[in-house]
Amino acid sequence: MKKILVSGASISGPTLAYWLHKYAFEVTLVERAAELRLGGQNIDVKGPALEVVRKMNLEEEIRAANTTEIGIRFVNVKNEIIAEFPVDSSLSMTQELEILRGDLVQILYKRTKAHVRYIFGDAITALNQNAEQVSVTFSSGKTEDFDLVVSAEGIGSHTRKLIFGDEIKFKYLGLYTAYLTIKKASTDSRWARWCNVVGGIIFVLRPDNYETTRASVTFLSPELGYEKLSVEEKKDVLIKKIKNVGWEAERIVQEIKDSDDLYFERVSQVKATKWSHGRFCLTGDAAWCVTPIAGKGVDLSMSGAYILAGELSKTDDYEQAFMNYENRMRPFVESSQKLPPGVPRIVYPTSKIGVAILNGLFSIVGSKPVKNIIGLFSSKNKDPEKEIELPDYVVDTKRSVSND
């Protein structure tokens, strides 16, 4: 049996831990935060992620935690509806299985906690590899030996830096984005609302299943290191950026002041020429962050974790397993990181005229005749082409996770 340490308790980490346990590995999962980080916005479970979820027998539990969102409306600064796309529309941002990031994290934790050793409030500070094992030092001062270590952390992975240093590159997409939970208002409904305002700013307000609203603010900007600021400094930057721009900005400004779950980060892709070094491997955003623009984050996190665990189960040669995992995943990652010409800047007009032109385009696309034509060619309601093959690996049923 191999003893494996996974760092990061978001989506890819617990998914990886689940499958590693299935294949009879001894798994420890360490998370820097003192408890599960249950914040975050709506995410969709579709394609490869849905396939993995079904293999885990989690579909009904995820369906029961649906955010209640019924579609998206594009509105102007007067809150007038320009176009709307219900969940069954080929152009809707809303998917059939919409769940809050935190709810999915909670579901994955519940499914794995009985069989995976979770360590909260600790982090990896040093890794020393030799031919037999990896000696890990934690911020708590404890040390422990493992056969393999996997970073399933986020875009700013600290553990990745211990192994790869500055070798990993980032492709900044010209945007910063912020997420927070806000109080529900009379203008909120089961429809998500998207509003472009002058200055290259997009507001999105989305319903959740907790009688609150999930807000995001995304804006054009040169890369200025905002993600490195303190929470209060981040709040100041956001407030200065959106104050007096119209629509529901003043409501959001007040909510930013009071927020205790603000997330503020640059929108960048992670570009890594390799995902492993010796007994250490990357998965999830630490390996390939494709950004929310691609709409593939959960697909990649869950399929990557599934494939990495499966390949490790097939051979005692971990280097070969890491290579097989990368060969299977990299084409999907590279395809997901490709963006159409002009994206994302094309949907972030900075002038009043630019916003009016974009809203006019939304109105045309949202008209019934155009939606009907597009629907004829859409694959949303058909069986989509498989983006990645998920092999059926052999499971050790004697050690399988309970409640499957």
From TrEMBL:
GO terms for molecular function: FAD binding; monooxygenase activity. This is FAD-binding monooxygenase. Keywords: Monooxygenase, Oxidoreductase. InterPro entries: FAD-bd, FAD/NAD-bd_sf, FAD_aromatic-hydroxylase. Pfam families: FAD_binding_3 (PF01494). It comes from the Bacteria. The lineage of its organism: Bacteria, Pseudomonadati, Bacteroidota, Cytophagia, Cytophagales. Transmembrane segments: none annotated.
